[in-house]
Amino acid sequence: xxxxxxxxxxxxxxxxxxxxxxxxSVVKSFVGPDKVRRTVVNQVSLDLARGETxxxxxxxxSGKSTLARIALALETPDSGDVEFLGRPWTxxxxxxxxxxxxxxxxxxxxxxxxFDPRWRVSRILTDAIELGDPENAxxxxxxxxxxxxxxxxxxxxxxxxxxxxxxxxxxRVAIARAIATRPEVIVLDEAVSALDVxxxxxxxxxxxxxxxxxxxxxxxxxxxx
Length: 225
Ligand SMILES: Nc1ncnc2c1ncn2[C@@H]1O[C@H](COP(=O)(O)OP(=O)(O)O)[C@@H](O)[C@H]1O
Ligand SMILES: [Mg+2]
Known about the structure:
The two termini are about 20 Å apart. By secondary structure, the protein is an alpha/beta fold. A hairpin with a 2-residue loop joins strand 5 and strand 6. It is built from 6 helices and 9 strands; from the N terminus they run ββββαββαβαααβαβ. The protein has a domain of about 120 residues: 3-Layer(aba) Sandwich (Rossmann fold), CATH 3.40.50. Strands 1-4-9-8-7 form a 5-stranded mixed beta sheet, sandwiched between helices. It has a 4-stranded antiparallel beta sheet with strand order 3-2-5-6, covered by helices on one side. The chain is globular, with a radius of gyration of 18 Å. The model has no long low-confidence stretch (mean pLDDT about 90). Adenosine-5'-diphosphate binds next to helix 1. Adenosine-5'-diphosphate (ADP) binds next to helix 1.
Protein backbone atom coordinates (compact mmCIF):
# COMPACT_ATOMS: atom_id res chain seq x y z
CA UNK A 1 0.00 0.00 0.00
CA UNK A 2 1.33 3.47 -0.74
CA UNK A 3 0.60 5.62 2.26
CA UNK A 4 -1.75 3.57 4.36
CA UNK A 5 -0.62 2.08 7.66
CA UNK A 6 -1.77 -0.90 9.68
CA UNK A 7 -2.39 -0.94 13.41
CA UNK A 8 -3.49 -3.88 15.52
CA UNK A 9 -4.97 -3.94 18.97
CA UNK A 10 -5.83 -7.00 20.99
CA UNK A 11 -8.16 -6.79 23.97
CA UNK A 12 -6.56 -6.90 27.39
CA UNK A 13 -6.35 -10.46 28.62
CA UNK A 14 -6.56 -12.02 25.17
CA UNK A 15 -5.17 -15.48 25.59
CA UNK A 16 -4.91 -16.96 22.20
CA UNK A 17 -3.00 -15.84 19.20
CA UNK A 18 -4.97 -17.87 16.67
CA UNK A 19 -4.89 -16.16 13.33
CA UNK A 20 -8.32 -15.83 11.77
CA UNK A 21 -7.44 -13.90 8.64
CA UNK A 22 -3.95 -13.71 7.22
CA UNK A 23 -2.78 -11.81 4.14
CA UNK A 24 0.51 -12.88 2.57
CA SER A 25 2.37 -10.29 0.46
CA VAL A 26 -0.73 -9.07 -1.33
CA VAL A 27 -0.14 -6.95 -4.43
CA LYS A 28 -2.76 -5.22 -6.55
CA SER A 29 -2.29 -2.75 -9.37
CA PHE A 30 -4.74 -0.98 -11.65
CA VAL A 31 -4.38 0.76 -14.98
CA GLY A 32 -5.58 4.33 -14.55
CA PRO A 33 -7.46 6.48 -17.05
CA ASP A 34 -4.05 7.70 -18.28
CA LYS A 35 -3.23 4.06 -19.23
CA VAL A 36 -0.48 3.97 -16.59
CA ARG A 37 -0.45 0.96 -14.26
CA ARG A 38 -0.08 1.83 -10.57
CA THR A 39 0.48 -0.48 -7.65
CA VAL A 40 -2.22 0.35 -5.14
CA VAL A 41 -1.58 -2.42 -2.61
CA ASN A 42 2.10 -3.22 -2.41
CA GLN A 43 3.27 -6.37 -0.60
CA VAL A 44 0.80 -6.11 2.28
CA SER A 45 0.92 -8.87 4.88
CA LEU A 46 -1.28 -8.90 7.93
CA ASP A 47 -2.50 -11.21 10.64
CA LEU A 48 -5.87 -10.71 12.26
CA ALA A 49 -5.85 -12.70 15.49
CA ARG A 50 -8.86 -13.80 17.56
CA GLY A 51 -10.52 -10.92 19.37
CA GLU A 52 -8.31 -8.43 17.62
CA THR A 53 -9.09 -5.16 15.88
CA UNK A 54 -6.93 -4.19 12.95
CA UNK A 55 -6.94 -0.60 11.74
CA UNK A 56 -5.99 0.50 8.24
CA UNK A 57 -5.33 4.22 8.12
CA UNK A 58 -4.48 6.16 5.01
CA UNK A 59 -5.45 9.06 2.85
CA UNK A 60 -8.01 8.84 0.09
CA UNK A 61 -6.68 6.69 -2.74
CA SER A 62 -4.10 4.89 -0.62
CA GLY A 63 -5.70 1.49 -1.27
CA LYS A 64 -7.78 0.92 1.88
CA SER A 65 -10.92 -0.18 0.03
CA THR A 66 -8.91 -2.28 -2.39
CA LEU A 67 -7.28 -4.13 0.49
CA ALA A 68 -10.70 -4.55 2.13
CA ARG A 69 -12.15 -5.95 -1.11
CA ILE A 70 -9.27 -8.39 -1.38
CA ALA A 71 -9.84 -9.45 2.25
CA LEU A 72 -13.48 -10.07 1.28
CA ALA A 73 -12.39 -11.98 -1.87
CA LEU A 74 -14.38 -9.54 -3.98
CA GLU A 75 -11.17 -8.62 -5.75
CA THR A 76 -8.36 -10.97 -6.81
CA PRO A 77 -4.82 -9.92 -5.93
CA ASP A 78 -2.17 -9.89 -8.69
CA SER A 79 0.03 -11.88 -6.36
CA GLY A 80 -0.10 -13.01 -2.76
CA ASP A 81 -3.16 -14.49 -1.12
CA VAL A 82 -5.42 -14.38 1.90
CA GLU A 83 -6.15 -17.29 4.23
CA PHE A 84 -9.19 -17.69 6.45
CA LEU A 85 -8.55 -19.94 9.46
CA GLY A 86 -5.49 -21.35 7.74
CA ARG A 87 -7.24 -22.20 4.49
CA PRO A 88 -6.82 -20.43 1.16
CA TRP A 89 -9.59 -17.90 0.76
CA THR A 90 -8.97 -15.50 -2.10
CA UNK A 91 -7.56 -18.31 -4.27
CA UNK A 92 -10.15 -20.95 -3.28
CA UNK A 93 -12.67 -22.38 -5.77
CA UNK A 94 -15.97 -20.49 -5.86
CA UNK A 95 -17.82 -23.26 -3.98
CA UNK A 96 -15.38 -23.06 -1.06
CA UNK A 97 -15.54 -19.28 -1.12
CA UNK A 98 -19.30 -19.39 -0.69
CA UNK A 99 -18.93 -21.29 2.58
CA UNK A 100 -16.44 -18.78 3.96
CA UNK A 101 -18.21 -15.71 2.62
CA UNK A 102 -20.93 -15.60 5.25
CA UNK A 103 -18.27 -15.72 7.97
CA UNK A 104 -16.80 -12.40 6.85
CA UNK A 105 -19.19 -9.44 6.79
CA UNK A 106 -18.73 -5.89 5.57
CA UNK A 107 -20.11 -2.49 6.48
CA UNK A 108 -19.49 0.39 4.10
CA UNK A 109 -19.32 4.12 4.58
CA UNK A 110 -22.74 4.90 3.21
CA UNK A 111 -25.16 2.04 3.73
CA UNK A 112 -27.91 4.05 2.08
CA UNK A 113 -26.32 3.48 -1.32
CA UNK A 114 -26.23 -0.24 -0.62
CA PHE A 115 -29.84 -0.68 0.50
CA ASP A 116 -32.51 -1.44 -2.04
CA PRO A 117 -34.62 1.74 -1.95
CA ARG A 118 -37.80 -0.34 -2.33
CA TRP A 119 -37.11 -2.27 0.87
CA ARG A 120 -38.08 -1.42 4.42
CA VAL A 121 -35.80 -2.38 7.29
CA SER A 122 -37.76 -5.60 7.87
CA ARG A 123 -37.07 -6.84 4.34
CA ILE A 124 -33.40 -5.79 4.45
CA LEU A 125 -32.93 -7.94 7.54
CA THR A 126 -35.15 -10.90 6.70
CA ASP A 127 -33.47 -11.15 3.30
CA ALA A 128 -30.04 -11.32 4.95
CA ILE A 129 -31.29 -13.93 7.45
CA GLU A 130 -32.90 -16.10 4.77
CA LEU A 131 -29.76 -16.04 2.63
CA GLY A 132 -27.11 -16.19 5.30
CA ASP A 133 -28.58 -17.84 8.40
CA PRO A 134 -30.74 -20.74 7.16
CA GLU A 135 -31.22 -22.07 10.70
CA ASN A 136 -33.22 -18.98 11.54
CA ALA A 137 -34.98 -18.61 8.20
CA UNK A 138 -38.26 -20.02 9.60
CA UNK A 139 -38.28 -17.32 12.29
CA UNK A 140 -36.73 -14.55 10.24
CA UNK A 141 -39.16 -11.90 11.54
CA UNK A 142 -38.30 -12.63 15.18
CA UNK A 143 -34.62 -12.86 14.38
CA UNK A 144 -34.83 -9.44 12.67
CA UNK A 145 -36.15 -7.94 15.91
CA UNK A 146 -33.33 -9.58 17.88
CA UNK A 147 -30.80 -8.11 15.48
CA UNK A 148 -32.37 -4.65 15.77
CA UNK A 149 -32.22 -4.87 19.56
CA UNK A 150 -28.59 -5.97 19.40
CA UNK A 151 -27.70 -2.77 17.55
CA UNK A 152 -29.72 -0.50 19.82
CA UNK A 153 -32.83 -0.19 17.64
CA UNK A 154 -36.18 -1.90 18.16
CA UNK A 155 -39.24 -3.54 16.71
CA UNK A 156 -40.66 -0.12 15.84
CA UNK A 157 -37.94 0.27 13.19
CA UNK A 158 -39.04 -2.80 11.20
CA UNK A 159 -41.47 -0.76 9.13
CA UNK A 160 -39.08 2.16 8.60
CA UNK A 161 -37.64 3.14 5.25
CA UNK A 162 -33.88 3.72 5.41
CA UNK A 163 -34.36 7.11 3.76
CA UNK A 164 -36.40 8.22 6.78
CA UNK A 165 -33.71 7.23 9.26
CA UNK A 166 -30.74 9.23 10.51
CA UNK A 167 -27.24 8.35 9.32
CA UNK A 168 -26.46 6.71 12.64
CA UNK A 169 -29.67 4.64 12.57
CA UNK A 170 -28.95 3.54 9.00
CA UNK A 171 -25.47 2.47 9.99
CA ARG A 172 -27.00 0.46 12.86
CA VAL A 173 -29.27 -1.29 10.32
CA ALA A 174 -26.22 -1.98 8.14
CA ILE A 175 -24.43 -3.50 11.15
CA ALA A 176 -27.53 -5.57 12.00
CA ARG A 177 -27.55 -6.87 8.44
CA ALA A 178 -23.82 -7.58 8.58
CA ILE A 179 -24.10 -9.65 11.77
CA ALA A 180 -27.19 -11.55 10.55
CA THR A 181 -24.91 -14.28 9.22
CA ARG A 182 -23.01 -14.50 12.55
CA PRO A 183 -19.73 -13.54 10.94
CA GLU A 184 -16.44 -14.05 12.72
CA VAL A 185 -14.82 -11.12 10.97
CA ILE A 186 -16.39 -7.76 10.20
CA VAL A 187 -14.70 -5.47 7.70
CA LEU A 188 -15.63 -1.82 8.26
CA ASP A 189 -14.67 0.33 5.28
CA GLU A 190 -14.77 3.89 6.65
CA ALA A 191 -17.99 2.81 8.33
CA VAL A 192 -18.25 5.90 10.52
CA SER A 193 -16.59 8.49 8.29
CA ALA A 194 -19.87 10.01 7.14
CA LEU A 195 -21.33 10.41 10.64
CA ASP A 196 -21.21 13.26 13.14
CA VAL A 197 -18.47 12.90 15.72
CA UNK A 198 -20.87 12.10 18.57
CA UNK A 199 -22.67 9.48 16.47
CA UNK A 200 -19.31 8.05 15.39
CA UNK A 201 -18.49 7.48 19.05
CA UNK A 202 -21.82 5.70 19.62
CA UNK A 203 -21.31 3.40 16.64
CA UNK A 204 -17.74 2.63 17.67
CA UNK A 205 -19.01 1.75 21.17
CA UNK A 206 -21.60 -0.55 19.60
CA UNK A 207 -18.92 -2.24 17.48
CA UNK A 208 -16.71 -2.73 20.53
CA UNK A 209 -19.65 -4.31 22.40
CA UNK A 210 -20.44 -6.60 19.48
CA UNK A 211 -16.83 -7.62 19.26
CA UNK A 212 -16.58 -8.44 22.95
CA UNK A 213 -19.93 -10.26 23.17
CA UNK A 214 -19.34 -12.52 20.25
CA UNK A 215 -15.54 -12.70 20.21
CA UNK A 216 -15.46 -11.22 16.75
CA UNK A 217 -12.55 -9.77 14.90
CA UNK A 218 -12.74 -6.37 13.21
CA UNK A 219 -10.84 -4.79 10.37
CA UNK A 220 -11.55 -1.04 10.31
CA UNK A 221 -10.36 1.39 7.71
CA UNK A 222 -10.22 5.08 8.42
CA UNK A 223 -9.07 8.16 6.52
CA UNK A 224 -6.19 10.15 7.91
CA UNK A 225 -7.46 13.42 9.30
N1 LIG B 1 -11.43 -1.26 -10.13
C1 LIG B 1 -10.51 -0.28 -10.25
N2 LIG B 1 -10.02 0.06 -11.45
C2 LIG B 1 -9.06 1.02 -11.58
N3 LIG B 1 -8.55 1.71 -10.55
C3 LIG B 1 -9.02 1.41 -9.31
C4 LIG B 1 -10.02 0.41 -9.09
N4 LIG B 1 -10.26 0.34 -7.77
C5 LIG B 1 -9.46 1.25 -7.17
N5 LIG B 1 -8.71 1.89 -8.11
C6 LIG B 1 -7.70 2.93 -7.83
O1 LIG B 1 -6.87 2.47 -6.79
C7 LIG B 1 -6.51 3.54 -5.93
C8 LIG B 1 -6.87 3.15 -4.50
O2 LIG B 1 -8.30 3.16 -4.37
P1 LIG B 1 -9.02 2.72 -3.03
O3 LIG B 1 -8.59 1.35 -2.66
O4 LIG B 1 -10.47 2.95 -3.25
O5 LIG B 1 -8.42 3.75 -1.97
P2 LIG B 1 -9.03 4.28 -0.59
O6 LIG B 1 -10.12 3.36 -0.17
O7 LIG B 1 -7.86 4.28 0.34
O8 LIG B 1 -9.52 5.66 -0.85
C9 LIG B 1 -7.22 4.76 -6.43
O9 LIG B 1 -6.31 5.49 -7.20
C10 LIG B 1 -8.32 4.20 -7.29
O10 LIG B 1 -8.65 5.07 -8.33
MG1 LIG C 1 -12.08 3.66 0.30
